[in-house]
Amino acid sequence: MMKKTKKYPSKIAKLVKVLEKLKKEDQGEEKVSQIINQWQQETQTQIARAITVIPLTSEELNQIEKRLSLILNEPVLVINEINKNILGGLKIITGSKIIDSSLAHLLNQYQEKIKEFND
Question: Which of 3, 24, 26, 85 is the most buried (most CB within 10 A)?
Fold first, then answer.
């Protein structure tokens, strides 16, 4: 699911279709990164992937876009990806930056702390 902006609706719709198709292919992740980088350069807009277990609402996507735009000091377009493996919470990826507050990440952190404590 992706929030369309008024500025690039047709380009965004095309981008989403290409990204969805590439996800299904082998080595699709590498191609997705290449397309995202090219699109970002052409539109001067940063793309952020918001990974959740359930779809975000338009209002939630809008709030994330506003906050990331302030943090990064540039326009941001948020694409919502659904991934049941994160168990809950939110993981945001933009460029090389990752904000991971997913339940899976937190459980892994706790598991590491328990291992350290037992060693």
Answer: 3
